[in-house]
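Bench notes, afternoon.
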Amino acid sequence: MIFMRKGSGFSFFSFLLTLCTIVLAIFVLGGSIYLYLEMTNSDFDIKDSLQEAQVTIKRAIHIANSETSSNKDVSLSPETIDVSEIKPVREDKIVSNYFFYNQLTDNGKIIYSSIESNLENMKSGDYTIDFGNQFNDILQTEQGKADLKVDFQAAWDALALDNPMVYFIDVTKLYLTIESTTLGSITKYNTYIGPEEGVSYLIQGINSADINIYNQKLEAIKNNVVTKVEGSDYDKLKQIHDVLVEQLDYDQSLTRNHTHDIYGALVEKCCVCEGYAKAYKYLLDGVGIPCVLVSGKGTNSKGETEEHIWNYVLLDNKWYAVDVTWDDPIVTGGTLTKSMKYKYFLRGGEKFLDNHIANNYLSNNAFKFEYPKLSVKDYQ
């Protein structure tokens, strides 16, 4: 039996009306949510489009600024850059960065890659790279040890040519060690690369604490140059060539610690041909123009032949020679003329090879490297 209080009687019509109201509210709420999500998705699409348009506008402004700023002062001075915020200019690996690596044997590539990947560790000056028994098979052969030594030297030569930032290691203090363990008739070999006991393989005059500071300075200078050069690849090649000719001095003393590397060239601004050539490659790597180092002999205007280093650069799908050092001759009692300044800029092999002879066997090693084939004619 159901008891109901007076005045609170059940009404089927009221119940039905309430149910319809609830259903209608749910429908309206669901529709609102659906519309909101659709509008939100549209907003995302609009934001993406606006962002793309903004990038396009920025590019147009950059192009306009470039067209009106052709007289920028390109300097090797890093003072205008906050070195604490320096980031590499280019992360991608253009082909010339691994030009010599690609010519190595499989074992040479293993050694090269191991040194390259451990450069941070090698800043200590005493870090040892342990290859374990990775070269055991080749060392089991009669010529194994001799072949591995050739591969080691070739790997180092290739790395030094491909990467100008490997300036802090003195390879003459870096040793390849082969240890053998014999058990019965079986001999196994372990291989290491490292220093002599108690001797650092860092170059003279530098310690591990200096290297990061030096690298920051070099990156600052590169960024300063890269952000100011502009125009076509030819324009960039010429502008970077000019800044080195105008701001570097040839080291006649030959006694400076960094006279052969990019720190001597770009920071101390005094170096020999190796510093000039490595600095040119380092800066061209920053703007993405393929450039390789070429080691050999040069015969100067006095008929004297000497060890020399210069560059080959890729422009309009052809390789041309650039000798920044010889475009910056020591002038006594006069000034550097335009003809002297560009005498060895973008030259073909027809004339350039008369007094430049490339050495395919670096470090008097048995491994033969190949260089790019030069255009016959000068760049026009």
